[in-house]
Amino acid sequence: MRRERPGRRVADTMRLLEEESMLLAHPAVLHDLVERYTALERAVASGNADPATRQRLADIAYTLCVSTGTRDVDAALIAARHRLPGARVEDDSALTAAP
Question: pTM score > 0.85 for this model?
């Protein structure tokens, strides 16, 4: 999976999701995936992650991409967070500083 800064892709990603007829994961599933990805990403960033943890992170990233119809994890996180209850279309909370 490519890791790029999200920037202008937010609107493009959301427009694509609205235009395409595809099954979307339930918000509860997306919430769980985002939480798991975030926790695993922190573990890997700490430098103490074993190969199994790195593989779980890659697996969750792939599942997020498939679940949101995106091709990179940053776009998947944006799309997933926008589908969560309480998210607003103009919400930029997914656009945090790169680690």
Answer: no
